[in-house]
Design a protein that fits this description.
The longest helix has 17 residues. It is globular, with a radius of gyration of 23 Å. The chain is α+β, with helices and mostly antiparallel strands and about 450 residues long. Helix content is about 40%, strand content about 20%. The strands form four sheets. Strands 6-7-8-3-9-10-11 form a seven-stranded mixed sheet, sandwiched between helices.
């Protein structure tokens, strides 16, 4: 490393250099060649589709997971074990139901052996900061979702972390509650009243990233890599009515709906087409070669949402602009893009210049009655979804035509983290049941082949 690099590293609170991650014996990476630096005063958003490794990277930076390659540095020194300078707010509230709010917030300080009087004082200040005063003696069952997540924030902030990590902290909340909590968090950060020097947030919500972040790292998948880095807006430009905000949202839409295109080139085209730049970009050219995993990453999309979108587009002529769909269906961009991704995976539609266009089989699916609809879905699922094809193949070959779910999940853990492997399995079960490929008994943990629709060998 050069002297200049030494100076840069020493100025960074936290950095990742050329980080790689794979699971099990599947050497195809979940993350490939990811490098970032986090400096004091920054709010950084990691934005991208499901399966792009954002949460995995967060856990690596927190020292909860070791990288398979590359380095994580804290103030220029290699990280060994859990990172003592960070605290995390997760999507799930993870509160202890037998403890009241004050006791839940004090938990992190117990592990630090903080004396009782100071512990109580710091917890009370954190509760007051996050707007929970008056709820100190309430138990989690008495709290709304928004209040539970406030407890999560207070519990993270009470330890006064140098860096606050947030892993989709608002995604489990209803729209109004999430918006309120986002606004309050932004106010605290801009007022510099939070006891933390920097924030990193994982999200797949475009509006959320634009509202909060000073820098936005847009990730691509298969394997996870940084496609491009965008400069965030000034606080004055983050208003919903701001023209600068509208331009940045439009740019990110273009990047995320063209996953195979060169993202820096998309940014440059946008800049050249305007008299005033809408974003600056660090040339985050991906060195990640496209490598197919053993299984595709299945987006977390229900059958109702998937079939509903295809039928809706079929009913309005077979094509629609992504932003028009988001507005007309009143859907968040991240939720809509996940459904579009599932539609594409199954061969029902494709993205063309930010338009979702149904394929011929997609149009036929949209117009079909239930039995034909299921038959089409079954054929497309077997042809296009590797995991479903392999499950049916193994069920057909098994003497009893049954499989233990844990065996399937263990196999998935060769390509995904344990948590993601289970989510992939749950999505596959939802799609497989709808296609009448197999049944699943949660109590016994067994998958059973549907003999009526057993595919011909």
């Amino acid at each position: 490393m050069s002297v200049a690099d030494d100076v840069l590293e020493s100025a960074a609170l936290l950095s990742a250099r050329d980080v790689m991650k794979y699971f099990g014996d599947d050497r195809r990476p979940v993350l490939e060649h990811v490098s970032i630096e986090l400096r004091e005063g920054e709010f950084v958003a990691l934005l991208g589709p499901s399966g792009s490794g954002k949460s995995t990277l967060l856990r690596i930076l927190a020292g909860l997971m070791e990288p398979s390659g590359g380095d994580v540095l804290v103030h220029g020194s290699p990280l060994v074990g859990p990172n003592p300078n960070v605290a995390i707010v997760f999507q799930s509230f993870a509160l202890f139901p037998w403890l009241d709010v004050l006791q839940n917030v004090e938990l992190g300080l117990l592990a630090m052996n903080v004396p009782e009087e100071e512990r109580r004082s710091r917890a009370t200040r954190a509760i007051d900061l996050i707007g929970l005063d008056g709820f100190e003696e309430a138990f989690p069952k008495e709290l709304s979702g928004g209040m539970k997540q406030r407890v999560g924030f207070a519990r993270a902030l009470v330890v006064q972390p140098e860096v606050l990590f947030m892993d989709e902290p608002f995604s489990a909340l209803d729209v109004l509650t999430a918006e309120n909590l986002r606004t309050e968090l932004q106010d605290l950060w801009l007022a510099k009243t939070m006891p933390t020097k920097a924030v990193v947030m994982v999200t797949h919500n475009i509006d959320e990233a634009v509202s909060l972040a000073d820098r936005i790292l847009v990730f691509g998948a298969n394997p996870g890599h940084i496609r491009v880095e965008l400069k965030g807006l000034s606080p004055a430009d983050r208003s919903a009515k701001s023209a600068a905000r509208a331009r940045l949202v439009e740019l990110i839409y273009r990047i995320m709906t063209n996953p195979d295109d060169d993202a820096p080139a998309i940014v440059e085209q946008s800049i050249q087409g305007r008299t005033r730049p809408i974003a600056s970009v660090r040339g985050a050219k991906s060195t990640a070669a496209t490598r197919a995993r053993r299984y595709q990453v299945l987006p977390d999309v229900s059958i109702d949402d998937l079939t509903g979108l295809v039928q809706y587009i079929g009913g309005i002529g077979g094509h629609a602009a992504v932003q028009d769909l988001s507005r007309d269906l009143q859907m968040r961009a991240d939720d809509l893009l996940a459904i579009i991704e599932a539609t594409d995976l199954l061969g029902f539609g494709a993205l063309q210049e930010r338009q979702v266009v149904l394929t011929p089989i997609g149009s036929r699916f949209a117009d079909s009655e239930t039995d034909e609809e299921k038959a089409i879905f079954r054929a497309q699922a077997l042809d296009h979804i590797a995991l479903l094809h392999h499950i049916v193949r193994d069920l057909t070959a098994a003497p009893t035509h049954t499989l233990d779910a844990e065996e399937v999940i263990d196999e998935l853990e060769h390509s995904f983290s344990g948590e993601e492997a289970r989510r992939q399995f749950e999505t596959a079960v939802d799609w497989g049941r709808y296609a009448e490929l197999f049944t699943y008994d949660d109590s016994s943990g067994e998958l059973t082949l549907d003999e009526e629709h057993r595919p011909a060998r």
